[in-house]
Amino acid sequence: MKYINNIFTIEKSSLTKIIKKFETPIFCYSEKKIIENINNFKNSFKSFSPIICFSTKSNSNLKILNLIKRNGLGADVVSKGELMIALKAGINSKKIVFSGVGKTRPELIYAIDKNILLINSESKSEILEIESIAKSKNKKVDIGIRLNPNTDAQTIKQISTGKKENKFGVNEKTFIEISKYVKSSKFLNLKCLSVHIGSQILDYKPYQKMLNVLDKLIKKTKLNFEYIDLGGGMGIDYNKDNKKFNYRKYNQIIKNFLKKYNSKIIFEPGRSIIGDTAILISKIIYIKENSKKDFIIVDAAMNDFMRPALYGAEHKIIPLKKTNKMINKIYDFVGPICETTDKFLTTNKFQKLNEKDYIIICDVGAYGSSLASNYNIRPKPAEILIKGTKINIIKKRQKLQDII
Ligand code: LLP
Question: Which domains does the chain have, with CATH numbers?
Answer without folding.
Answer: 2-29+275-403 (2.40.37.10), 31-273 (3.20.20.10)
